[in-house]
Task: structure prediction
Amino acid sequence: MDFGMDTITWYLLIAAVMVIFGMVRLLLVRDLLARLIALDVTGIGVLLTLVALAARSDATDPVLQALVITGLVIAVAFTGLGAVLIRRIEGQQDDPPGGDAP
Amino acid sequence: MTFPQFALGALTLLPLLGAAAAVVLPHPARRITGVVTAVVIALLTVPVLVTVTSGELPELVLGGFDAPLGIHLRGDGLAAVFLGVTSLVGLILTGYAAILPKSTGTFLSATAWVPGHPGFWPLWLGCWSGLNAVYLSGDLFNLYVALELVGLTAVALVALGGRKSWEPALRYLFVAVLGSLLFLAGVGLLASVTGTLDLQQTREALGGLEDPTPALLALTLMTIGLGMKVALLPMHRWLVPAHSSAPSVVSPILSGLVLKAALVVLLRCWLWAVPVLAGAEWLTWLLGGLGTAAVLAGSVLALRQDRLKPLVAYSTIAQIGYWFLAFPLLLPGENDDAELASGAYGAVVALAAGHAIAKAGLFTAAGFLKDRCGTDEIAALRGAGAHHPTLILAMGLCAVGLLGLPISLGFTGKWQLATAAVGAEHWWLFLVLAAGTLLSAGYLLRGIAPLLMQAEVDDNTPAANPVTVRERTGELAVLLLGVATLATGLLGAWVSTMLEVGSWW
Result:
């Protein structure tokens, strides 16, 4: 049981690191695509926290699992919306100075 | 199932159905679907309001699945007030959008940019469904889902405004999603401690808990997340570009209604889900301090704007501050004075409801002038009042509501807040209220007064073009919002009685 608690603590730590890295990158980077991915990383970190919390008891907590599944669906939705917006924004810059034209 | 119960379910599901139907219909039919749905929603709100006024609490458990996993709709006082306001504002704005399709954004067809975006109708109905679901949800899980529905449709609505609105929309998406992720983390933390998501069960479970730390951490996470979505002061930068670059009928929806959804969730978390926590005082004072800063900084920034829509957007930031001023009074503190807390709660609701109507009117008017004149620079709009007397009258009426002059819900709210401040001997609140009111008088005058002046170049302004019948009707819709600002001012006592139903105390 000691070992089991330990694994969960590890997962919680990894999740916290992911959330922090994702948020820092989201707030500091200018590149739009990088920001979207940073947001995804933050989202995965949050969901990982919930999964780790759900796995604490012997029978996995169904309420938290339901939250995680909904969170995943919403993550797909916002990533799609963000990707469409980024494509439009970068598509309207006719000759991008950086040279990475779409 | 009684009729009010049916209405609760229909209020959340019918707009969603309308949105789904609108997606597959051609553009003119979408407009009809939108208007019909809006009228039906407004009619369905009536039985809920009547039931709540008579002191009963309509509840509906969807599909017979009970908490913790079922969907539980609860039409308490808070839900009823915001349902009423949303139906009123939503119906008028739907009418406005149907009369003036230009206000729904621009659409890139095969050859050129065409005014009138067909995507508006499904998105707006979807957003409305999310709003109603936020008000009626009895559990944290559905609050999260509904808030996410509102947020994503709102981002897409901003993006209807054409090229200039895409970047603000993306920025709004980043902030809104980060906010809801933090909220989700808080919800998950609460659920892991209590094993349930139902608001009442969470409260009971937390009340029996000895260690308040997890609940406090969850409350902090949820407050930061929702603070981003409400655009409380240090997290407010996204609001101005998003609200001012959105199409002219979308800005009032965002400023008037979408922000209120996050506020309702915040109130549900603070007052319903979590009992009074030992260590939460610093958080209430932090929110009160940020509210003060928002009132002052937002007003000063509004004074410095040269364009009408950003001015109105900054005024929204100042008004958001007022809702948070009440937080230090909201929780019964050392005196355990429940009456004081209920007064402060009534003040927040009245201020938010009044703001929803008045700001929707003012933003619609600003958008109307921008659509008509091609610009919203205050200097260029000089003298527009001579051609749009109805519109200016409506703007004036809305300004009364935003200033908090009698008779308006804004006045009721400020009065209740001041009364609660006297009761708690928080004299600093008076200074903030007075300073905020004076500053808002300043920026509203700065926005509206030039419209009334004589134009420098006669008859050469875009506003001097002949006004079509449709535009005149659109102005009447704005006037309706202005009149509603004053008319709802008479309903302050009614709002207070409704809030008694199903409240947390």
